[in-house]
Amino acid sequence: MPKVAQVEPITTARVLRGPFDYICPEGAGVGSVMVVPFAGRDLLAVVTAVTDSSEHEMSEAIELLPVSLPRDLVALGPWLADEYCSTPARAYSLMLPPRGVKERSALYASVLREPGEDERLTANQSELLGSLPRLAGGDVAALRRLEKRGLVLLEAKSQRRAPKHAEVGKASGASGPPLTSDQAEALEELLAAAPGEQLLLHGVTGSGKTEVYLRAAAEVLAAGKTVLVLVPEIALTPQIISRFVERFGETVAVIHSKLSPGERFDEWMRLRSGEARICIGARSAVFAPMSEIGLIIVDEEHDSSYKNEGDPRYDARHVAARRAEDHGAVLVAGSATPRAESWQRLRRLSLPSRVDQMPLPEVEIIDLRGASGVLHPDTFQALVDSRKSIVLLNRRGWSNYLSCSSCGYAWECPQCDVTLVLHRASGSISCHHCGHRERVPERCVECGSVSIARHGTGTERLETELPGIVFRLDGDAADAGAVLRAFEQADEGILLGTQVVAKGHDFPDVELGVVVDADQTLRFPDFRAEERTFSLVTQLAGRSGRGSERGRVIVQSFSPDAPALTLAAQHDAPTFLEQELSRREALRYPPFSTLIRIVCSSPQPGAAQDAASQLQQALPGSLGPAPLFRLRGRERSQIVIKAEDRHTAVAAVNAAVGKVAKGAGRKSVAISVDVEPQ
Ligand code: ADP
Ligand code: ZN
Ligand code: ZN
Predict the structure, then answer these.
(1) Ligand 1 pocket: which of 185, 207, 211 to mutate (most atoms <8 Å of CB)?
(2) Separation of 311 CA from ligand 3 center, angstroms?
(3) What is the largest CA-CA distance in the chain?
(4) Is residue 663 part of a domain?
(5) Cα separation of 514 and 459, whole Å?
(6) How do residues 180-196 score in pLDDT, each as one tens digit?
(7) In terms of residue numbers, what domain contains 326?
(8) What is the structure's pLDDT at 153?
(9) Which of 256, 334, 553, 568 could form a disulfide bond with 234, CB atoms 3.0-4.6 angstroms apart?
(10) The CATH number of the domain where 9 resides is what?
(11) Helix (H, G, I), strand (E, B) or coil at 202
């Protein structure tokens, strides 16, 4: 009797839920990846179990691929599906290496024996022999002839495609500076932590958190275990990567979105085989195929990029905690502005001061009430007085919207219920949600008037109002890394951009940071608005004054007394977090509940709202349905659940969505579930 392979075919279809039985190919086991015939197509599939018998008639697999998932990832698939109302197949698709890429091998030549006294060699041949061992390169034919004579050994070895980025290299051999006493204490506690324990390393920017990670990683490697390091978007955090590569060399694998499929495949294989024992990467690296993980680091743990926006809408921090538990690894979340959740749940280690003993920058809140223009005169003067500054404005484009001064008509996106943003350089008005673009109008489409007013200021316009050379970094910038490098190398200038400018870069000589419109984040309709604002101001403060001068930060606001601002100005994260936690407890927001958001959308008028109200009725205690703005031609409606118990709630949501989806499907309603939305 042949063995039975239970497989999960990789498909995005929600209704097809495995496992399905196939005849188990020779050599296949749990985690094996194969190609199977499925519903008339050839699909990739992951083997989730091997059994002795099946009640079904079975087909043969088409091909057994030379890659396999480690067992803990096989088990993680269904778990992820349950946690985020998704399917195991979608979960596995996040874990597999890119397809259709072959392992790259190269010919290596080495000397097999020295030529005897009487063996005649041409000058070229002796020279070749003298240069071995090395890659065969262009002289393969000549080496083959030497191989025939038994002088040279040629062998194919698998070869890593060196990523075309700065992050490959040899270890420098340096072991880092002696630790400060705070760092030493944090490291000691970290290394003494129990397997599976989760810690929060709360350290002000510049307090030497990265150095603590590096030391801890060295200890964990020495103990024979591996290390997983998660960072926010890689393009924005090159420094931490280069520090790991400098310290640990080739054993570091880097996974990010700019890798070619071949490079990604190689890094995946190096991790799977154990050749690479440290993995650094953004969100998706949480699924790195590593064994025996001893330490998981989540750097800048407050960063919203840890949440995936597509299905499965997983949170890499939550998955990291689960993997740490599976491996008995210690998890360390690090930040200067931790989330309230982490502050409450994790054991805290703290680095209260900067390594260089410099005082934290002075933060000044400027009251915008009664002021005119985007920049307060004091802010303008401060920019004139500073050699290098960072200016943050969370709005791209020239102005927010255009309206007719005669009849009031406002230009909106035909697909979405939002106004079109003016981008002057490209001569267009565009939708920031769906990408719709139009030429800048010359006259009103309603009344023909040529008097068109521009409202609000975005980064494109602010650029023209700033004193000095401006380096603009926003969604319009083609290459964020290049802009950052140019600013880093410049002697003077202003880095202007949306919130990316406040993230993790280390510029030693920035004197001033400016938040142009703090109310924009503060007024955002979300229970995390205060936390985000606090974090933004604090992170920006961390970017300035890292050299010899004390830095300065200016925050412009119409609500200068908001605690998120005043406490950020005092660099008082603990008080802010305690207040934030009691506010959330009173309102039953996370971490005192789990939020689940369900969004129904449909191009048919009324259909989304109907489906949402059916869901609302099926889920007692849920809030809504609340209509959302139309997006890409689809009406949308949402309901929100504040759940005491995550697992019961997710199960109830799954059941309700399954039931409602059947009827709604006919009206082309799409239902998306987001557990713990950001
Ligand atoms: P964080 O990650 O908390 O922002 P870093 O680890 O980047 O801080 O440290 C800030 C700076 O201080 C870096 O340039 C780093 O090389 C340096 N540094 C860290 N620890 C020490 C130390 N013990 N002695 C001297 N310099 C240090
Ligand atoms: Zn008009
Ligand atoms: Zn649109």
Answers:
(1) 211
(2) 21
(3) 101
(4) yes
(5) 13
(6) 999 999 999 999 999 99
(7) 181-351
(8) 86
(9) 256
(10) 3.40.1440.60
(11) strand
